[in-house]
Amino acid sequence: MKIKRRLKLKVKGLNTAKISTFHFSFFICFILTFNLIPLTLFSASDTGTSAGLLLRISPEAKTSAMAEAVTSLSENLGALDFNPAAISNLPDYNFSFSHSEYFEDVNLEDMKFSTYIQKIKGNIGITLKYLSSKDVERDERGIGRDEFLNSDAVAGISYARKIYPLDAGITVKYLNEKLAGESATAIAADLGLLYSGYNLPFDFGFCIRNVGSKISFGGEKDVLPSELRLGISRNFDKLLLSVDGVRQRENILNGNLGVELNAVKNFKLRAGYTTLQNYSFGAGFSAKIISIDYSFTSHEKLTDVNRFTLNCKF
Fold this sequence. Notes:
Order of helices and strands: HHEEEEEEEEEEEEEEEE
Largest sheet: 14 strands, antiparallel, barrel
Shape: globular
Distance between the termini: 52 Å
CATH class: Mainly Beta
């Protein structure tokens, strides 16, 4: 009996050592990937301005309130814009609608939906975004003639599933832009991974966003706003702390910090800060199958932004 007990303890110790080694190796791979992949994706000759910026904008109130530091948050429909693996294992039918108000009659509407499908052993997600703004055609003297509408639209479909010990996801998006009577289209994709639980106090997330074709207006081709995201988060009972590192195609490296406090039952307070010197805050209220989120985001050069999101699961 003593010999069997010793053998069990040895086997348990070996398994724990293997898990610990895997955790350490996985974390090192995250760091190396975040630093090495940009060398191949963002070459020195391809770091100018980007087009199709709607692909980069987050219209969801919860993610905006946390300064978009949501790459490592699992089972989160709102984080779908920043990591397609976020909807993996998300139960029930989930729906959200968001409205954002920008400057000078610029409005952004967003709809998301996800559900688990047993036959494909994963979750399917759908995203629709529509950005509209009014403009006026002017003559040589600057006198306004006709009013016209500029618009950007994005339609995306996502798939995510558990691939032990990871959650993996992919999103394919179609972008259509209309500006001053001209239109352009592009195709983009997001690839994301999540690593949560498994005896670690932290959750990790990684995502490559907006990698795809170029978009052309008037014969000139522009590159999409691709970026790499690495996130880490931890839940301290009633307090969620999340940090993201973001490396954009324009060779801009910034950090995002987000917190969420479960102050009282069914009510949460959120706040965030980015190294771009933008701060944000917001709140969320839930009641049975419905929840409502609000966020306020400051901008140093543009006007401040208010966002509202209605969530429903059934």
